[in-house]
Amino acid sequence: MCQGLAKLVVVDIRLDRTHDNPQLIFESMNSTGLRLSQADLIRNFVLMGLKPALQERLYTAYWRPMEADFGQAAYERQFDDFVRHYLTVVTGEIPRMGDVYGAFKEYARGLTAGAGTIESLVQELRAYARRYCAVALGHEQDKELAEAFRDLREIKADVVYPLLLELYTDYELGVLSRDDLVSIVGMVTSYIFRRAVCRVPTNSLNRTFSTFTRSIDKGRYVRSVEAHLLGLKTYRAFPTDEEFTAALTTGDLYHFKRRSYLLRRLENFGRKEHVSIEDYTIEHILPQNENLPEHWREHLGEDWAAVRARYLHTLGNLTLTGYNSEYGDRPFADKRDMKGGFRESPLHLNKGLGDLEAWDEHAIVERAERLAAQAVRIWPRPVLPEGVPTAGRPKPDSGYSIEDHPNLSRGMPQVLFEKFRNAVLALDDAVSETFLKNYVAYKAETNFVDVVPRTELLWLVLNMPFEALHDERGFASDMTGKGKWGNGDVQVRLDERADFTYVMGLVRQAYEYQVGE
Question: Which of 48, 30, 43 is nearest to 75 (CA)?
Fold first, then answer.
């Protein structure tokens, strides 16, 4: 320890505020050492430029309580994530990972350039931090809400935090009741968990939940959330009971990342005295051993290898036990009748196993269907009353149509446009077309490609960074900082000589870039 202390160097930098910028020095002074966290940069950006008395007051009243709420470990690991979710709520845009500090500076400068102050900014940040701690760190005091938030944490549903921060704000303001908040959190949990079980890719969820509240009618909060969830289409759709049941009964759930959550909820469904599944291990009733003993082969029949391959890791063959090592590869009858066996098990998951004579394909399928029916009740899909529309927010009428673009109704641009619009609308059912004054926009979540008609060609504007585009043939131009119609920094020429298939490959990159974001 003494040798370590002997190496300690204390640096005292004295600044003249008339010439020096403390924040810029702070940002750069550690550039050759350990990387400064976004939290450190944000804290010092907010406080460092203030007069000492105001700096001390804001730190003591707002920032220090925020650090205390998070705790040392969570502050280091999760504060950056929290600020990203906070900025998503207040700006409507998702900051890129690694650029949270830059996005925060931009938001803060815009706020203080208007009617806001640094103190109002820190107050707002503190309020959202308290809500985040309730939702994401287990600080919620209400029992039902705490359980609902715990489920979301267990399934690693961080993408919903921007939505929950807004919902929790409305809950605190009295716009949303406690029971309605619990109901909505349950719906969101079902949506995310069903998609996970059905192996639906998650790359669209960030954008789905960052814009979710735009579709909420706060006069009919719960109904509008139900309608929006049921109105999501294609890659964002809410899996049906049939799809969920099929995935549960046939999928590999042993290697499913959320298997512990699945088994905990199945075990405790309908229980008042909850069982902690951490005290148990997962048991394959039909053993995992590739060299299956002869007695198991006889039970499974001539197709024992195919049955084992099909059902080994499925829900019907998985349970919980405290006797995993004792069970081993024993025959089913031994597992059933031995001391501590299935017949004596107090676990709900083992209910009915003690009454079976054999464990074969029929028994596995029957148990899987029973547990899947239970899962459908635990993670329900909303059902709207008859007559209530399920459509999401209505698409705005721009007031323009193809007739406002004469270049699209004659010559080569017309031929190219018809070919292009058919191809781009075929990318996904969720892609929409909107005619504007100077261009035609194609959107998934927002514009991913815009078409600017000219007399002999079409200019395509792709909404993605130029450096993110893979264009080995050099078709695209970097329009960053240059004047143009449309949204985005990439421009591609589409005329009769262009390789249409290659151009559509570039357009698909813009679409996938947006969905991935």
Answer: 43
Q: Which residue has the tokens 């193809």?
A: 402
DSSP secondary structure letters along 180-239: HHHHHHHHHHHHHHHHHHTT---TTHHHHHHSGGGG--GGGHHHHHHHHHHH--GGG---
Alpha-carbon 174 to chain mean position: 27
CA-CA distance, 242 to 236, in Å (whole number)?
17
Of the candidates 70, 90, 444, which has an alpha carbon nearest to the alpha carbon of residue 236?
444
Burial of 363 (0-12, 13-18, 19+ CB in 10 A): buried
d(CA 112, CA 125): 14
Sequence-distant (≥ 6) Cβ neighbours of residue 397 within 8 angstroms: none
> Which residues does 389 contact at the CB level (< 8 Å), separation at least 6?
227, 231
Give the integer Cα–Cα distance in Å for 330 and 22. Answer: 71
pLDDT tens digit string along 59-99? 999 999 999 999 988 888 899 999 999 999 998 888 887 78
Query: Distance between CA 73 and CA 516 in Å, rounded?
Result: 30
Amino acid at 260: S
CA distance 89 to 171: 15
Sign of the alpha-carbon dihedral angle for 266, 267, 270, 276: negative
303/206 Cα distance (integer angstroms): 45
The predicted-structure confidence for 317-364, as pLDDT tens digits, reads as follows 999 998 888 888 888 999 999 888 999 999 999 999 999 998 999 999
E strand or H helix at 432: strand 432-435
In angstroms, rounded to a whole number, what is the distance separating the alpha carbons of residues 201 and 191?
Answer: 13
**Is 481:470 a contact under the CB 8 Å cutoff?**
no
Which residue reads 């909505």 in tokens?
A: 184
pTM of the model: 0.75
Q: Where are the domains positioned within the chain?
A: 2-139, 243-378, 402-516
Q: Which two tokens stand for residue 373?
A: 């029916």
* Alpha-carbon gap, residue 293 to 330, rounded angstroms: 9
